[in-house]
Design a protein that fits this description.
9% strand, alpha/beta, 5-stranded parallel beta sheet, Rossmann fold, Zinc Finger, Delta Prime, domain 3, 17 helices, elongated, nucleotidyltransferase, Helicase, Ruva Protein, domain 3
Length: 342
């Protein structure tokens, strides 16, 4: 089920007794919780709404609450957070959860209760009996399948609902600044609303002035300068990142990761793999693959390989010498620009 369809159903009071919300989209998770909580009238919330954290509370407590009839109301809402026992992950919580009671409940949920299981994970362990039963009986809201267009559409719709306008070019610029992260984009919007309050139009000037580039975005620019053999801009940007107190080893690690991705995407695209298939195979966000596909059209394999190997050497020097990181990066950039990297 898509998020907007869920919101419409909740607003129309057309809800099921059991939901599973899966994925790490913090903003959407909070919005989903707010919509569900609005099902319960304000004067009934104390008695008919409860939220449980499985890292500190036993699931049996939540089940007992869910099985109770609403107190002077039509519905009871029970939210279960962080059900780590649905995954293969280990938790520091030393709780002996009554998983059997949860399995029995999801098979026969209380009709007057809405139970929402919020699993902020990329995937669940489908081999577990409890996971299989929840997936079989629950309405699933899968936030892990949120793609680039979904993020763009959600942000654009939010801006329009606020009475503001934004061009497609500026919207793309905004999403690039936040690495297509919906939660981060929604966090940044209030600043843009305030800045553009008089005109109600979000401009490129506003985005440039208010939304700082992430380290990943700066490194993406750094890759572009290196591959264009634009040594001056590459060195200037690297120096700027150092002045921002970014760690040289972290910068280099992200650079290596980006060049590795470009090499992998180049090879897989030449073999005929689609953007979605590449993202699935490499287990990276589809947006990163999209940007990589745009870039590799301009680059050749030999140059990408040489840059990658040069950065490997640079990392070794960063770890083993006391030379200035700026000087080491400058030497790498100039050598690569002159095709002198072995």
């Amino acid at each position: 089920m898509k998020v907007n369809d869920l919101f419409k159903n909740i607003e129309n009071n057309e809800v099921n007794p059991l939901y599973l919300v899966l994925g790490k989209q913090e903003y959407l998770i909070n919005e989903i919780k707010k919509h569900f909580v609005n099902l319960i009238p304000e004067e009934e919330k104390t008695m008919n709404f409860a939220s449980y954290d499985m890292e500190s509370q036993n699931v049996a407590t939540a089940i007992g609450d869910a099985m109770s009839l609403p107190f002077f109301g039509e519905k009871r809402l029970v939210i279960i957070n962080h059900p780590y026992f649905l995954t293969g992950e280990r938790s520091k919580a030393n709780i002996d959860h009554d998983i059997d009671s949860l399995i029995e409940y999801v098979k026969h949920p209380q009709p007057s209760t809405v139970m929402v299981i919020v699993a902020p994970y990329e995937k669940l362990d489908g081999r577990k009996k409890v996971t299989k039963n929840i997936k079989k009986n629950a309405e699933i809201v899968d936030l892990t399948s949120l793609n680039e267009r979904d993020v763009e559409s959600y942000v654009y719709s939010s801006i329009k609902r606020k009475g503001y306008s934004i061009s497609k070019t500026v919207l793309n610029q905004l999403l690039q600044r936040v690495s297509n992260d919906l939660t981060l984009a929604m966090t940044e919007l209030p600043k843009l609303y305030l800045y553009c309050y008089d005109t109600k139009e979000i401009t490129d000037e506003a985005v440039n002035n208010l939304i700082a580039k992430s380290l990943d975005q700066n490194v993406f620019d750094l890759v572009r300068y290196v591959m264009k053999k634009d040594a001056k801009n590459a060195i200037d940007l690297y120096r700027e990142l150092i002045l921002q107190e970014q760690q040289p080893l972290q910068i280099n690690a992200i650079l290596l990761s980006q060049f590795r991705l470009l090499l992998q995407v180049l090879v897989l695209s030449r073999k005929g793999h689609s953007q979605g298939r590449i993202a699935e195979k490499l287990k990276v966000h589809p947006y990163r693959v999209k940007l990589a596909l745009r870039s590799v059209r301009k680059y050749n394999f030999d140059n990408l390989r040489d840059a990658y190997l040069g950065l490997v050497t640079l990392e070794e020097k960063l770890k083993s010498t006391s030379e200035s990181p700026e000087l080491l990066f400058q030497m790498f950039t100039l050598k690569f620009a002159d095709n002198k990297i072995a």
